[in-house]
Amino acid sequence: MGSTAAALACTATLAVGLSACGSDDGVLRTPDGSVISTTTTRFAEVNIVGAGRDYSRTCLAPTTVDPGRTDAKRIVVTDPALLDGLCALGLGPQVRAITAAPGSVPEYLGPQLAAVPAVGDTPDAAAIREAAPDLVLSTPGTAKQLDALTATGALGTARTAVVDPAGDAKASLMAVAEATNRSAAGTQRVDEFIAEAARVGRVMDASHSQVSLVRFTPDESLIEGTSPFGAQIMALVGVDRPAPQRTPAAVPMTDDNMTDADADLIYVSYAGDGGRDRGHDVLMSDEWLNLGAPTWKRVLSVNDEVWYGRPGVAAGWLVLNDLKQSLNSSSASG
């Protein structure tokens, strides 16, 4: 809501004798005290792709267990890296505890998984008993947690599985699908995603769009290569990349090589507040604004956590939807 609307809201508040707009918490509110949405849709003259996206819709519909196999109704996870696969298989409601630090669930997975109790890296037996799991999923990196929980007897008769989420999004999902006795569903979800990516590529004539990736961290400005997750999804869709960006490694961007970042469209992202500060300075600089894509208003901002995070099919759908929405768009207007 713009400043004019906010001012009107506060005027109305005074008229009815309420004081929400004069509160000390710095939150804009309507006359009845409801918080006013202030979703940012633009940063440094660049439109944000998917601004205000409803992450409660990230997780896909529930899947069925393989014929003749045991289903898991209550799942404990010892590594948040496994949550994307569970989300893609529609198993979010079955996750009852996560042995990780509070706040470790990626925001893009939505409020359902964010609400699951995060019981810490070294949970006590009581927290796990309360979760009453019938399946506990671990990773090679958190297998010691699984051993410790087993030693306390907190797992009871729960089945355990060590799942390696390393590799691409397909391999990660299929590992989780196998552990949850949903191999057939996992294959179907992967096939659906690949088919949709190919369709999007055809419909949007993606091979004739040359797209650049630039990432800002607190310490560096980077021209990205082919290794980031978002770049892998772009390749699956068939999006072309500028010649300097066709190798895996990222390259620090300087005034001397900034033209290597230019393309028909540039997707930028920011890692944390420091990345946003650096990005703002670069995007408003004369050197950047003299490039072709900024001149044509063909620079867009994407979610760093999704595009540069751990590969997963749930995140992959968000990247794919970003491409659907923005591949032929611009930042010409707010």
Automatic annotation (TrEMBL):
Keywords: Signal, Transport. Its main location: other. The keyword Cell membrane does not apply. PANTHER family: IRON III DICITRATE-BINDING PERIPLASMIC PROTEIN (PTHR30532), IRON(III) DICITRATE-BINDING PERIPLASMIC PROTEIN (PTHR30532:SF25). Signal peptide: none annotated. It comes from Gordonia liuliyuniae. Belongs to the bacterial solute-binding protein 8 family. This is ABC transporter substrate-binding protein. It is found in: Cell envelope. It holds the Pfam family Peripla_BP_2. Gene3D superfamilies: Nitrogenase molybdenum iron protein domain. Residues 74-331 form the Fe/B12 periplasmic-binding domain.
